[in-house]
Amino acid sequence: MSARPVRIACVALALALAGGWAAALAAPQSILPPGFENPAPTPTPPSRLSPGASPTGQPAPIPGATSSPVVQDLPSAGGTGRSGGAPAPVIAGPLPSLPANLPSLAELESMSTDELDQLFGLRPKVDMPAAARRSMDAVGILAEEEGGLPAASLAGQPGALVRAALAGTDEPLVSRWGHILLRRALSSRLAAPEGIEPAEFAALRTRVLNTLGEHPAARALAQDVDTANYSPALTNAAIDAYVGSADIVGACPAVRLQTLDNRSEPRVRLLQGICNAFAGEGTRAQRDLRQAFSRRVAPPIDVLLAQRYAGAAAKSRRAVNIEWDTVTELNPWRFALATALGEEIPEKLRADAGPYYQRAWALSPAVPLALRATGAQRAAREGLLSSAAMVDLYSQIYTLDNPETPEGAVAVLLRRAYRAADPAVRVQAMRDIWGGEGVPAYERQVLTAYAAAQLVPSDALEEHAAPLIASMLTAGLDRDALAWAPIVSTGSEGWALLALAQPGGKISVPTGAISDFIGDDPSEAKRKSQFLVAALAGLGRIDEGARDDLADDLGISFGGRTRWTRAIEAAGATRNPALAAFLAGLGMQGDSWARMTPRHLYHIVRALNQAGLSAEARMIAAEAVARG
Fold first, then answer.
1. Is 45 exposed, middle or buried (0-12, 13-18, 19+ CB in 10 A)?
2. Do 307 and 231 have their domain in common?
3. Which of 174, 328, 438, 608 could potentially form a cystine with 617 if both were Cys, beta carbons 3.0 to 4.6 Å apart?
4. Residues 391 and 504 in one domain
5. CB half-sphere exposure, 101, CA atoms < 13 A
6. What's the rounded Cα separation, in Å, for the pair 313 and 280?
């Protein structure tokens, strides 16, 4: 039986019950033809058994004789049967009771079909065979052999600490390499720590990925859990991920199969209508969405976008006109629906779009190339896009876009940085991409990382060595960067970057060279020098005595213990990479490196290095000096 007949039957049953039970308790009416109401009386059984008689008064069966079918007489109107027993009961067991919250007839008529489903318990249940169910022992999309962290990284760790670290991460990070590390840790296939249910652990990680703008990774992580195992928190985080990646229909299993705490939220109400349409219930969907429009469940533009989307599934002939004239701001729902429908968002709304939409533009192949390039600047700076992804984007722009546009001009310069025969011309092209003679734009240095790596180090390029090395390190090209070691002068910025990026455990950096760097540091409040000393100390490349002396000269301190410093020190000492990464992410939140302190950088680099994440620690350290 389909869901709709069952739903109608339940509503009818409720109304019938509300009408009273007297009719239900009346004696049954005979349905026999006339003349059958008074059958012949049954012979009275003898007072005692005689030989050859059965207890029912019928002849005893003869052994070996052929048996005949026994037909039991229907009970008479008086309620006695052939055996002369007591009247048959009409209703057995206790009388059913009405629900305490049964709505009135008017309320039932005004309720949506989804509300009726919830009231009468008609929501479909997930019934998957055991072989198709995914284990909750370890949830994630990146196995250890694929570059993820060990599954048992958090085994035995206190759940309260892990919960606090993830719940407290509610901003993007200042560090590109910190973002890359945290994304890797959150996406790894991990077992839940003690005291946290697997669904809650998945929900916490999905939420943080959404916060970072990593909606595709958040969606994939949520999809690694069967919908039947979703908690309300995981359901809400999964819906955020689907909307953030403009995958509206992907949210339907969670919307249709889970009982949500926020079913009255406008977004959920509109998703229900869309999902009903894609489930083949077009009439129901359009009725619910029209109802949402008339009752002002959400602003008109939000409902109209939902109607347009649902109409595509139901092949509706009803035209839906999208009017942006009265819309004053974007929200994630409007952006996702407009992107999925190919509906152009007005320029006035795009101009005021915040970081959320810039990240989404960079990751969405459905938006125009110029808009993607605008978002890619932030995405590259924050760590969402790799250098290779940036090159791919500008290669498309070079092929398809107008070279007179700003994005097309950058694409032409990038081609020159790769293909020009003269190294000086290639370096100048990169400098033009970075922004001329000023401080290089870090996001543009991400774009030129592989072009810089193709240059052959030479004394003629020494003055450009520092930004070229910084560009290579944005993509983790430390070996290519170290080829410039014979070229850079001791105490220069290029030398400082290589002193941090160089792999190896026991490396000692001379204090005199650090002092030379401090003396020539042009940054405000000598921030680069502060970060250099903190990072070298965290990597163990200067001893504690030299660290304290240099810190005194710079007016900074690495002392002072807090709950966070104690926790991240313990994570490093116990070589726990997942916990160290979570706590490092907690300490790197902010919108610029001005939010980072040398003391925090010291503890982060030190803990990551001890926990076995030396490569990430070195890249974070070099990034701090390059962007300080």
1. middle
2. yes
3. 608
4. no
5. 4
6. 8
Report if residue 445 sits inside a domain: yes
For 408-444, the pLDDT digits (tens) are 999 999 999 999 999 999 999 999 999 977 788 999 9
The candidate with the shortest Cα–Cα distance to 330, out of 346, 310, 308, 309, is 346
Query: Cα–Cα distance between 70 and 374 in angstroms, integer?
Result: 87
Q: What distance in Å separates the CA atoms of residue 349 and residue 57, rounded to the nearest whole number? A: 94
What DSSP designation does 190 have? B
540 shares its domain with 443: no
Q: What letter represents residue 111's amino acid?
A: M
Residue 90 lies inside a defined structural domain of this protein:
no
**CB-facing half-sphere around the CA of 589: CA atoms within 13 A:** 14
Cα separation, 456 vs 462, whole angstroms:
11
Q: Which of 325, 377, 374 is nearest to 351 (CA)?
A: 374
554 located within any domain? yes
Nearest-angstrom CA–CA distance, 43 and 59: 13
CB 151 within 8 A of CB 356: no
Tell me the average confidence (pLDDT) per consecutive run of 10 residues in the chain, 628 residues long.
Answer: 48 46 44 52 49 47 47 47 50 56 68 58 62 89 95 92 97 97 98 95 98 97 94 94 95 78 76 91 89 92 94 74 92 95 92 93 92 95 97 95 89 96 97 86 97 97 96 97 97 97 89 96 95 97 94 92 95 97 97 94 97 97 96
Quick one: 532 and 468 in the same domain? no
Quote the domain boundaries for residue 294: 158-348
337 & 394 share domain: no
Q: How many domains does the chain have?
A: 3
**Cα(372)–Cα(366) distance, integer angstroms:** 9
Q: What is the pTM (predicted TM-score) of this model?
A: 0.81
Gap between the Cα atoms of 321 and 306, Å rounded: 12
Domain identity same for 474 and 494? no
Give a yes or no: residue 225 inside a domain: yes
